[in-house]
Prior knowledge:
The complex is a heterodimer.
Chain A: E1 7-8, H1 10-23, H2 32-43, E2 48-52, E3 61-69, H3 71-76, H4 83-95, E4 101-104, H5 113-122, E5 126-130, H6 143-146, E6 154-157, E7 163-168, H7 172-185, E8 189-193, E9 197-198, H8 199-205, E10 207-208, H9 210-227, H10 231-239, E11 242-257, E12 260-269, E13 277-283, E14 285-291, E15 294-298, E16 302-307, E17 324-330, H11 339-345
Parallel strand pairs in A: 2-5, 3-4, 4-5
Antiparallel strand pairs in A: 1-2, 3-8, 3-9, 5-10, 6-7, 6-8, 11-12, 11-17, 12-13, 13-14, 14-15, 16-17
Chain B: E1 7-8, H1 13-23, H2 32-45, E2 48-51, E3 61-69, H3 71-74, H4 83-95, E4 101-104, H5 110-122, E5 126-127, E6 129-130, H6 143-146, E7 154-157, E8 163-167, H7 171-184, E9 188-192, E10 196-197, H8 198-204, E11 206-207, H9 209-225, H10 231-238, E12 241-256, E13 259-268, E14 276-282, E15 284-290, E16 293-297, E17 301-306, E18 323-329, H11 338-344, H12 358-364
Parallel strand pairs in B: 2-5, 3-4
Antiparallel strand pairs in B: 1-2, 3-9, 3-10, 6-11, 7-8, 7-9, 12-13, 12-18, 13-14, 14-15, 15-16, 17-18
Helix pairs in contact in B: 1-2, 1-5, 1-9, 2-5
Amino acid sequence: xxxxxxxxxxxxxxxxxxxxxxxxxxxxxxxxxxxxxxxxxxxxxxxxxxxxxxxxxxxxxxxxxxxxxxxxxxxxxxxxxxxxxxxxxxxxxxxxxxxxxxxxxxxxxxxxxxxxxxxxxxxxxxxxxxxxxxxxxxxxxxxxxxxxxxxxxxxxxxxxxxxxxxxxxxxxxxxxxxxxxxxxxxxxxxxxxxxxxxxxxxxxxxxxxxxxxxxxxxxxxxxxxxxxxxxxxxxxxxxxxxxxxxxxxxxxxxxxxxxxxxxxxxxxxxxxxxxxxxxxxxxxxxxxxxxxxxxxxxxxxxxxxxxxxxxxxxxxxxxxxxxxxxxxxxxxxxxxxxxxxxxxxxxxxxxxxxxxxxxxxxx
Amino acid sequence: xxxxxxxxxxxxxxxxxxxxxxxxxxxxxxxxxxxxxxxxxxxxxxxxxxxxxxxxxxxxxxxxxxxxxxxxxxxxxxxxxxxxxxxxxxxxxxxxxxxxxxxxxxxxxxxxxxxxxxxxxxxxxxxxxxxxxxxxxxxxxxxxxxxxxxxxxxxxxxxxxxxxxxxxxxxxxxxxxxxxxxxxxxxxxxxxxxxxxxxxxxxxxxxxxxxxxxxxxxxxxxxxxxxxxxxxxxxxxxxxxxxxxxxxxxxxxxxxxxxxxxxxxxxxxxxxxxxxxxxxxxxxxxxxxxxxxxxxxxxxxxxxxxxxxxxxxxxxxxxxxxxxxxxxxxxxxxxxxxxxxxxxxxxxxxxxxxxxxxxxxxxxx
Lengths: 363, 365
């Protein structure tokens, strides 16, 4: 048994960036800017302490936070850096209590970095876990909401200094609707913090150990680069995943719709997969992989797109015609495959009423 | 000289709503729903005291409440009834103190009556004044903006139970956020905003607006009872003018971005035979033009009255065949300042013409 992760240091950030981007399944935003912001904080002497999930006190108050918006915008509209901190402070004011720890709402993509950045700024620890184990496009698609936590009151902050507190909503879908329209007004990117959760709930509902998971995954890829090992195979081994296809992107359709990046990419297999065609649908994240027209892997299991040579992840906004990619399937955590979870993050929740989720290991 | 009112009773509400509809300049929503709510609240809690702003302590907390959204929606999506109070309570919670008086953000339209309902329910007095002296479509378009009173913190509530608090960098961005949220709420929501101290209000509000609308309502009622069209006496008493008379022959109206936008064409009757007037609106009537030449320009008031009864007609009621009087009224001088025109002048609404006071334009004719 190895010693659990207690602190994230400068040396860990590059690896977490890679691991988080892989778990982002194309979405969740690019963690690069957040990494640089974290590095700045660490250089100032601030620290990012980590609490292992099982050591979290039952009565600790934990706030889940992250950026909300369209990843394609996040690349161009660079965050000011304290959006999530202002959202956190607004939630603390709203509930009238100080918060004990932060946790990521989604480990995939930029939101892996946001809680660490805010932790360094606020002098708080981050919990080793998250609410998705990957990335998803909507706020209610996290285990907090799925397993009974109400997100309101929640607070949103933009880079200009505006703050919107959503004090109450009839349900979390209303919160998502209102937050989504607010974020469009904020310029399609904002920081969001939701109602504090108790430690005992977080221990039950969080996908455990995902900062460690992202760190180890990124380290494995970096190590493969140094040792000239196959980085794609390294990712597969590390995550008990499956190589679905090596392919070239032959068509790409992607547009912004209601604050989301939506579209699909068409693939033509090469290598062992020559003769196969593939198609991946996306809504911020890659959601469904089809081979020759038949669904093979679908949400909540992870459809991951890597550069076939470097094993580095390609986010949806970086996709280009002609790229040579490796498509991987990674199994979702059991908390994301329960009937309650599938109602919120299964294929039907994204409008695929004709697709029944089958765990990728059995399909 | 206009009589100042000291309280609003159930019996006054008809005149308040009528005067509010007149100053609504076609917008601000039909005051009818608010009138019913106010009558009910007055029945339950007694009349509402109307106070002069100078009678308030400098540190008194004054909170405007209003309904925000598209008037076309407000006609169909009725409030549940307690949203405005919950917005008020929400704002009080953020401020950590109770309101001492309610205020009316716009004396025109639905928002002339909603705050009276809230004041009665909360058993608070209402200040004699408003932030517009009429109705305008956006929430930063109030005299308070000219005097650096911040719209935030602002509370919003809807009939479904959504509740929000906004803290934005300026009043224009408050409008932008609140607007998308009202659209998400289904096109209308109740708001409490521009919390002010008595000292701020003494500087920043337009005075005596509730007295004004009550008096306008009384004039219209009295003239109607005497079988006269109220336009002439309104012109004499308010310093306004008849701009046009005719029949509505075309209405182009869209609900767009949370607003009722469009234009209406009025073909002249009687003395105006052979002429045609175009009225452009964005919730309110903003520009009256004859052959491309302006006859009245925002912020001056353009009111549409029924040709027979003198009853004010709102943009959402306006229909083909209505016989109407187009009535013009000079705006409050505060609106004619440089800052005022930046907020509510023709350029802001996308009309590429310079502002000219209505008295000057129509003196030339």
